[in-house]
Structure formats: C-alpha cells, structure tokens
Design a protein that fits this description.
The complex is a heterodimer. Chain A is built from 14 helices and 18 strands. Chain A has helices spanning about 1-10, 15-25, 45-65, 85-100, 110-125, 155-160, 180-195, 215-225, 240-250, 270, 295-310, 315-335, 340-350, 405, and strands at about 30-40, 75-80, 105, 125-130, 140-145, 170-175, 200-205, 230-235, 260-265, 285, 350-355, 360-365, 370, 375-380, 385-390, 395, 410, 420. In chain A, the strands form four sheets. In chain A, strands 7-6-8-9-10-14-15 form a seven-stranded mixed beta sheet, with helices on both faces. In chain A, helix 3 packs parallel to helix 12 (about 315-335) and helix 4 packs parallel to helix 5 (about 110-125). Chain A starts with a helix and ends in an 11-residue tail after the last strand. Chain B is mainly alpha-helical. Helix content of chain B is about 70%, strand content about 5%. Chain B has helices at about 5-15, 20, 25-35, 40-55, 60-65, 115-130, 135-150, 155-165, 165-185, 190-200, 205-215, 220-270, 280-300, 305-330, 340-360, 385-410, 410-420, 425-430, 435-455, 465-480, 485-505, 510-525, 535-540, and strands spanning about 70-75, 80-85, 90, 100-105, 110, 375-380, 385. In chain B, the strands form two sheets. A five-stranded antiparallel beta sheet of chain B has the order 4-3-2-1-5. A two-stranded antiparallel sheet of chain B has the order 6-7. In chain B, strand 6 (about 375-380) and strand 7 (about 385) form a beta hairpin. The relative contact order of chain B is 0.08. The chains are: A alpha/beta, B mainly alpha. Chains A and B meet through helix 3, strand 7, helix 8 and helix 9 of A and helix 6, helix 11, helix 12, helix 15 and helix 16 of B.
C-alpha cells in the first residue's frame, strides 16, 4: 500500500526525479554511501552541536556493523562550520557539490538553518534538522525532526495554566534576542490573548547571546510576580546564558512552587554544568527526557555510553531527533532502493520509527514529525522527571494557528498541494485535472 | 485540605495530644501507603490525611517525599525511604525508621512529586513543625504557614506565638497571623488590625499580599480602601530600597568588569600590548579552578570549601606562566607593531580556545560554589544581596589593592614603571628590560587568571568564557584612561552602575548599545579617557 502510494507520488515528479536520480546515481557509483555532518565543532555552539555530531557517527557506526545500507558501507563526512553562520552555507555547498553526500544531518540555531536553506534548495540536497524551532517554515529539502511550537511551547503554557501546573495568570517571557525566541513569543502572546490574558499581565524581555549578569532581570521578575497573581516564566534563553540565569534564580531563592520557570532550550546537556539542587521543580518541555523508562531508551543510552566511552555523558532531545531522523532516512533509502534525493523524499512520507519515549513517530507531508510532548521537572541529580505527557502523538504544525498571517498557510509537499507556504493547492483538484 | 479535617488537625495540635498518635500505628501505615498512589491528586489527598493526624512521626516521610528520597520497591510496591551510599541504596521504613537493608538503584522507583504537591507538602510540614524545638525548623515552618495562609492553622500559630522567645521569629509569626487574618477574619476590626500590622513591614511579600487582597476585592469597602492606602505606603518605602538594590547590582557588575579588565590595564594600559588573548587567560584561570576542585573532590572532599582559596594562586601561576610563554614566544618580536600584535594574539586566543576544547571537551564544566558563597542575605525590606556577588566585590578590591602595592612599593614595580616610561634609560641603568617585560606581561595574565576564579562562580566555565569579556575589558580600560589603574577602577564601577540603571528601563540589549554610544561620544571629547596621564610618559 505504502509502496504503491509512493510510486504514484513519484510519478508527479517523474521528469525531475529521473534526471537528478541519474546524475546522483552516477556520482554514487562508488561502493560507499556518504552522509554529511554539518555541526559546529568549535565556537559558541560547539557546546551543543559536538554531541550531535557524535550521535550521527554512532548511528553510522551502528548501521555499518549491521551490514551497511543497500549493500554498501556508509561513510560520514564531518565538516566544522565553526559557529559561523555564512560558513554553514559554504560548508553545505562543499558537502553536496564536492563530497557528493546523499544527505546532511546538521545545524542547531535557526540562523544557521536559514543560512544553508538556499544552498539545499538550489542544489536539491536533503537536510535533517534536529532542534526544536520557531516554525513558520517548510522547505522541500529539509526534514524537521525537532519540535514545532505546537509540540513544545503551546503544551507547556497549557500545563502551567492548568490546575496541576499551578494555574498561572501572569506571564514573563524571557528570551535571547534572535529569531527563535522572538517568533515563539509572538506566537505565545497571541495564544495567551486567546486565553484571555491581558497585555498588562505579560512581560517580555530579551537579552543578548551569552548574557551573564542576570541580577536585575531576575529581580524585576520577582517584582512583576508580586502583583498578587500566580506568575510563571517561559524561557527561550538559548545556549550559554542559561547557566548564569539559573545560578541567579537559585541565589535569589526563587522556588519553583512560587514562580515556576519553564524552558524550551534547556536539556540534560545544559544542566550538566550546574548544581541543580536549588532548581528542583523548574520545568522544561521536550519530546524526550533521558530519565524516561523504556526498553528503547535504555538500549539507546547503553549504546551511547559504549560509543562515547564515558558513563557520565547524558542524552538529550536533539539526539533523539537525530536518532529518529537517521532511522527514517535509512528506511526510506531501503524502500526507494536508491539514495537519490527526490526518490528518498517521496519515501519519507509516512515513514514510522519507534520513539525512545514510547509511541511511534511519523513523518508528515509538511516535513514535520508527529511526536509526543513531555513536561519534566528538574531534579537534584540534573535529570528531568516527567510530570505530564500528551496522550498520544502531536502532529508538528509548520505554520502557527495563532498568527493570523500564518494560520492561512498550509505546508504539504504531496499532490495536490506540493507547496510549503500556500493558501491554495498548487494543482486544482476535481474536474480540472 | 478538607476543612473538617483541618479543624481536627488544628484541634489536635492545639492540645498536643501525643496519646492519640500511639494508638493508631496501623492506620498511619495505611495512610502512608496512600503516598504511592499513581495520580498527583491522590498523593495530595494522602498528604492531607497524614497532616491531619498531627502525628510528628509522619514528618520524616513527608520530608523524604519533599526531598525526593521516598521510593517504592519494584517488587511488592512497598514504600521505603532510601539514601544513596556509594553504589547501593540503604532503605529504611517510612514510619519509625527501621533499617530494611541495602538495594540496588534498579530495584527502586522514585515517588514522583510536582510543584503543586511540593507546595502542599511544605504547608503540611509547616503546620506539623511549627512547635518544633529547633528554631531553624520553626523558621521554615512559619514561612510555609505564611504562604499557605490557612485559617485552620490559626490555633497552632497562636500557640506557637505564645511560646516563641526569638523576637525575629515572633515577628514573622505575627506577620503570618496578620496575613491570615486579613483574608480570613470575619470581623472588620480584625482585618483593619491586620492591615495595621502589615503596614509596619514594607517587604515585597507584603506588597504581593496586599495586591492580591485588593485585586480579590473581598471585604467591606472600608477595609479595601484601607488596604489600598497601606499598599501605597508600602510601595513608597519599597521604591527607595529598590534603588539601593540597583546601586548594589551596578557595583557588582562593576566589580566583575574590574576583575576582567584590571589585568588588561597592565598589559594594554601599562605595556601598550593589544592582547586579544586576554580573555583566554581568564578562561584558563576558570579551568584551573575546575581542575583544583576536581582534585579536592577526589582527594579531600571534606575540605571542598577551601578549594577556591587554593585555586587563586594556582590560577595566577598557570595563566601567568602561559602569559610569559606568549610574551617570550610571540609578542616580544612584535613590540611597536600594534596591528601585527593584534592579529597574532587573536590567533593565539583561537589556539588556546581550541586546545581547551580538545582537552576538556566543548561542554560546560561544573565548578561548584563553596558553602560560604551560596545563598543571599535578605533584609526585611526585600533588599537581597547574594553572597557570591558580595565576595566578588570584596575580592576585586583586594586584587586592585594588591596591584597598587606591587606597582608602588616593590622593586619590581619600580623597574616596571621605569621600563614602560623610558626603556632606553632603564636599560642603561642596568635593568634587564626583557625580563621585566616578560614578568609584567606574566603578572597581567596571572591577574586575569585570578579573575577567572571569580568568574567561574557566576558564569559558564566553557572554552568561550573569555570572549564574553574581552570587549568589555577594552572598553573599561579605554574609558578609564590608558595606563591608569585608578581610571580602570572608576571606569568599571561607573559603567556597571550606569548599565544597571538603564537595564530595567531600556532592556539589556538597548542598555548595552546606549552605554557603547555614550563611551564613543566620551572618547571623542576626551580621547585619553577619564584619567589621562600627563607629561612625557604619554609621548613615549
């Protein structure tokens, strides 16, 4: 059934697919299949991205041990874009044009993704992007395996509004000053309005990357929270700035029962450099926590510790995203019988992989995954404990329903839409065809 | 909590009937078992019931639950309190504390807690421990009671107030009493009296309370009008203290800038070397702190609080040695060629960053805070001074004092000033200028290393630590006046305070931009900074 559907879809692209498929086929006549890894190994983002590079290497290693792909060995080509956004685009071009990789796993910040986007679209490459992001995008050449806002931000706010989460009435939106926090907060503000929260009860504050002196901001949050309504903080603070922020929260004695802080960019890796005892009870929303008790997760953690040769290393959400993305790509390649981008893309839709946290992730035609959403509280040992979980999986939504201009748009890369941001299908349905 | 249950609890506590507890051990065990329930609401129910017994025996189990030490055994679902001891966990019975033997981590499932349950637990423990003989337990209890504001706890609270001898705790209890009365008292007079009591203490807590009361609007018009009046008075008094808080935060930011910049004031200010690798010297100091702490953790965990004291000289030596190596290896060939120096040191900074990344890994390293640097002093008016900031302010002043002493009172300081003021003359007087250059640069770098020890307490210990401070450091030195230590001190503190006053108004990003523009304009007017050196030295 799946195969038949794919064949049909492939038909829509027949011309283009055949041409590129041939070229790609010639290029890859060698006996290895190349996989590009585009993660910063130096500079500010190395802290987060190095782990993801290791994850891909582990998956490649694992695949080769189990007989490779299509009877060939898989080879990882690692490049270092050095946290330098324009260099991401150059390195992406190098991977596709010079190294002739079949697929690229890479990027962390939205600005790096925006930088490589034109390259992947021009050269018809394939990128798997593993990080939660602000949405408002769907490219034919990118599969987004991290969470869209409706898979992270919105459920987190819902939880804090609920009786269990403390029934928050007043909101502080703290973020680093760049595209992801600003877009996410725009969506959140619209969502809070729809829930009857007035502007006077929302405080928005942005800080530069790497901000280290949080004294006055934490003090002003405290002041804002003393207006007599239950207050919650939604943090889109990214990267290094989180450590001094949480240290300051601890020192100023903000307890999670009084002012809970929910973060979207703080995972096990970020907490590794912190004494979490004063932070117990603050929250994070992700699709994966290392603490989740499942056989898949236990096997994954074991494999990771064996590969990295360090029992103390933690796992996190973007690692799971790469795990799912890599497995899906392998399945799609096996199904298509080739690594040609257009054929693989068609085979990706509907591809299923078991989540590490239970349930099954499915790739949708808007290039976003269906995944479960978990909310966890920070524990004294630096892990998260799940306190709330969606019943099933949530379908990733590329265009937010809470921004009027975006609500109209649809992303669907199959017939008759074949478009990432259209109000109407590209091909008319019905009698016209 | 069910009001009826609460009443019983209050009555029990009020008359303190120990006899009622002993008779019901079996019932108590049944209630404790309720804590293993699946849903949080069932657990909250169980906590309420346990609290209602008023039995002090339930305090350990509730505390264990609050602190995440309550587990169920995987076979049999039996509740136990477990304590980690090396590779195994020692389990004890939740009631009575009988030892139940050792188990492995895999055999235990933690009883989960969320914020709501945590709040309930604190309130329950507050009621149960208000009469505890230990004053610190009572202090915590009264905080919980103040937060819970539960009318059912009034009899216990009154009883506790009657026996309390510590005046500070008594005042706190009176505050909790007034806060509860404001919301729950039946009579108008009682509420007005509560307001009068609250108006005596102008704290953010009281402001929050009054805000909530006014917003809730429950009470007679007279009471609400009085509450609004009290709120205004409290806010007026708080405003003053907030300004004091801003000044403190400014001084604190200033002290961080000062620490980061003072080493540069020597290498750039005195020697004239544009050292772009200055930030990496700070970073090396922070990593030295990490290594020293790891050594303490491994060999002398008991003396961990002293690790920073050892880290200061260690960081000075490590960064100083690297500084001397850089000076001898690269910079001395580039004196008088600022552009080449800039590029070469920039390259060195990248090399150092990547070297540290290769050795220690790209992720943040956990540098712990010793006991004496954690937490904060909180004044009753809401002014909060965190200990780590207070220590850093003191430390920065000591470091500057030390530098001034070295420069002014030692032979090395004299030689150093001689060499920087007139190299040829100093040389002909028999001073080995090469050695003095190396040592001066080493000293500047070593001080940067010391700054790294302090910064490891408030910032990330990552390979990028130094980058965050290099721009600010140059800004401070140029603003304060090149070649002048006092200029650096005044520059750092004034930039810090201006920044902290702008931040609440303009936001962190805009505040930084405004400060930068102000400095650019200032430099146009006074190119030599706040405290310009005068005389021949300037032209040298």
């Amino acid at each position: 059934m799946m195969k038949f559907k794919n064949l049909f879809r492939a038909g829509a692209f027949a011309g283009a697919a055949l041409a590129t498929g041939l070229v790609a086929g010639l290029a890859q006549a060698a006996d290895t299949i190349k996989v590009g890894v585009l993660h910063s190994l130096s500079g500010t983002m190395a802290i987060s991205e190095t782990t993801l590079k290791d994850t891909v290497l582990m998956m490649v290693d694992d695949l080769n041990k189990n007989g490779g792909l299509l009877g060939k060995k898989v080879e990882a080509v690692v490049v270092d874009p050095a946290s330098n956004w324009p260099l991401f685009a150059e390195k992406a071009r190098e991977l596709i044009e010079k190294d002739k990789v079949s697929v690229v796993f890479g990027c962390w910040t939205s600005v790096s993704r925006k930088s490589v986007l034109p390259v992947f679209e021009e050269l018809n490459g394939l990128l798997f992007y593993p990080v939660q992001y602000e949405g408002e995008e769907s490219s034919r050449n990118v599969f987004y395996t991290g969470a869209a806002p409706n898979q992270q931000a919105i459920p987190a706010v819902d939880y804090l509004m609920s009786e269990d989460g403390g029934a928050a009435k007043r909101w502080v939106l703290l973020g680093t000053d760049y595209v992801y926090p600003r877009t996410t907060n725009k969506i959140l503000r619209a969502y809070l309005h729809s829930k009857g929260v007035a502007d006077a009860d929302i405080m928005e504050n942005y800080t530069p990357f790497g901000h280290s002196d949080w004294q006055s901001i934490v003090a002003s949050v405290k002041k804002f929270a003393s207006a007599g309504k239950k207050t919650a903080v939604v943090s889109t603070i990214n990267g290094d700035a989180n450590v001094p922020f949480y240290k300051e929260l601890g020192n100023q004695g903000i307890k999670a029962e009084d002012i809970p802080v929910v973060a979207f960019s703080v995972g096990e890796e970020e907490l590794a450099g912190l004494d979490t005892a004063p932070l117990v009870g603050h929250l994070a929303a992700w699709n994966y926590f290392m603490s989740v008790d499942s056989p898949e997760n236990a096997a994954f953690i074991k494999k990771w510790h064996a590969f990295i040769k360090n029992e103390k290393r933690v796992t996190n959400d973007p690692m799971e995203a790469h795990y799912i993305g890599f497995k899906m790509w392998v399945q799609a390649v096996e199904q298509a019988g080739t690594t040609a981008v257009d054929a693989v893309r068609q085979a990706m839709y509907g591809q299923k992989v078991k989540n590490l946290t239970g349930g099954v992730a499915v790739m949708n035609t808007n290039h976003h995954l269906s995944k479960p959403v978990l909310i966890g509280e920070i524990q004294a040992d630096g892990q998260f404990e799940t306190v709330w979980k969606t019943d099933g999986v949530v379908v990733g939504d590329a265009w937010s329903d809470f921004i009027p201009e975006s609500a109209k748009l649809t992303a669907d890369w199959t017939y008759p839409w074949v478009c990432g941001n259209c109000e109407k299908p590209k091909y008319a349905t019905g009698a016209g065809m | 909590m069910h009001p009826f249950v609460r009443t019983i609890l209050a009555a029990l506590l009020a008359f303190w009937l120990p006899a009622s507890a002993g008779a019901q051990d079996a019932d108590l065990q049944a209630l404790v078992d309720g804590l293993a329930a699946k849903s949080f609401n069932q657990k909250i129910d169980a906590v309420d019931k346990l609290a209602a017994t008023g039995d002090p025996k339930v305090v350990p189990v509730l505390t264990a639950l609050l602190e995440g030490r309550l587990f169920t055994l995987k076979d049999g679902d039996k509740l136990v309190i477990a304590e980690r001891k090396g590779r195994v966990y020692v389990t004890t019975a939740p009631l009575g504390g009988a030892n139940l033997g050792e188990v492995k981590k895999g055999d235990l499932t933690k009883v989960r807690v969320n914020n709501k349950l945590r709040g309930e637990l604190r309130a329950a423990l507050g009621g149960l421990t208000l009469l505890s003989p230990d004053p610190s337990v009572r202090a915590e209890a009264v905080d919980s009671v103040l937060k819970a504001r539960d009318a059912e706890l009034m009899p216990v609270l009154e009883k506790a107030m009657a026996r309390e001898e510590d005046p500070a705790l008594h005042a706190r209890m009176a505050l909790a009493h007034a806060a509860t009365n404001l919301f729950a008292a039946k009579k108008e007079e009682a509420r007005l009296e509560a307001l009068a009591r609250l108006s005596e203490s102008a704290t953010p807590e009281v402001r929050s309370l009054l805000n909530e009361f006014v917003a809730g609007g429950k009470g007679t018009e007279k009471v609400i009008a009085a509450a609004k009046e009290t709120l205004e008075a409290v806010e007026g008094r708080l405003r003053l203290w907030e300004t004091v808080g801003d000044v403190f935060r400014g001084i604190s930011l200033g002290s961080v800038l000062l620490l980061a910049a003072v080493g540069l004031a020597i290498t750039f200010g005195v020697m004239g070397v544009i050292n772009m690798a200055h930030g990496e010297m700070v970073m090396l100091g922070a990593y030295t702190t990490f290594v020293v702490q790891e050594a303490f953790r491994a060999y002398a965990p008991g003396a961990f609080d002293l690790s920073l004291v050892v880290a200061v000289p260690a960081a000075f030596l490590v960064s100083g040695a690297v500084g001397i190596a850089i000076e001898r290896g690269v910079i001395r060939f580039l004196y008088g060629r600022p552009l080449e120096t800039l590029l070469a040191t920039w390259g060195i900074s990248l090399v150092l960053q990547q070297a540290v990344r290769s050795v220690f890994g790209p992720t943040n390293r956990d540098v712990g805070a010793p006991e004496w640097m954690s937490g904060a002093v909180e004044f009753s008016n809401g002014l909060l001074l965190t200990y780590n900031r207070l220590w850093i302010i003191a430390f920065s002043l000591v470091v500057v004092g030390g530098i001034v002493v070295v420069l002014r009172k030692t032979a090395f300081g004299l030689q150093m000033r001689a060499v920087t003021q007139n190299r040829a003359m100093a040389n002909s007087m028999g001073i080995r200028t090469g050695a003095v250059d190396a040592l001066t640069f080493g000293m500047g770098s070593g001080i940067a290393g010391i700054a790294g020890v302090a910064l490891s307490q408030i910032d990330n210990v990552s390979p990028n630590l130094g980058q965050a401070y290099i721009i600010d450091s140059f800004m401070v030195v140029v603003f304060g006046g090149v070649g002048n230590i006092w200029g650096t001190v005044v520059g750092a503190f004034s930039l810090g305070i201006v920044n902290k006053f702008l931040e609440p108004v303009a936001g962190a990003v805009l505040a930084k931009i405004l400060v930068l523009i102000a400095i650019i304009l200032f430099i146009q007017k006074r190119p030599r900074g706040l405290f310009a050196l005068k005389g021949r030295a300037v032209e040298a």
